[in-house]
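Dear Dr. H.,

I hope your travels went smoothly. While you were away I took the liberty of generating a structure for the chain from your last submission, since the lab meeting agenda had it listed for discussion. I wanted you to have the full record in hand beforehand rather than looking at slides cold. The sequence, exactly as received, is reproduced here:
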Amino acid sequence: GSRASIQTRRIGEDRHRHGPPPRSTPPRVTDMQTENTNPSTAKPPIQLSGADYDVIADLALSIERRSPELSKLLLDEIDRADIHEDGVLPSDVVALGSEVEFLDVEAGTTRTVRLVLPAEADIDEGRVSILTSVGAGLIGLRTGQSIHWPSPSGRPRVLRILAVTRAAGRA
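The corresponding predicted structure, in token form, is as follows:
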């Protein structure tokens, strides 16, 4: 199962999973300064609770055959996340159950949605599944962060988090 692959990391720990960090270079500048310099590589740091990590990993693996691209997007996103113990995720981080106000920068539109599990999704009620392009792009971001993320049609776009409201009882 996916649980064996969880690597608990704390904020500020070594972010390099594939080999040691370069020793001769100075520390990276903050994510706010670098986040939008190269759409294909400059993704902002994200954070997840251990419980959300498990749920999302299981969902991503369950759709691998019918939606390999979305499965890979989700697995890649959670693989780069800083994992928090349940109950200690900062309140301005998008988690499952969060209400999120975000700006689609290219379209100039603002939307407010609740990020939910697939069985709870209802676009007419503003409930967006984690198994959608938008849901996968929003998870783990904090208020003020932006991410370059493909639209369902494949066109590139930037999503910027304007506000996050955590559902009561969620980590």
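Two observations you may find useful: Residues 50-62 form the longest helix (13 residues). The two ends are 22 Å apart (CA to CA).

With kind regards,
E. W.
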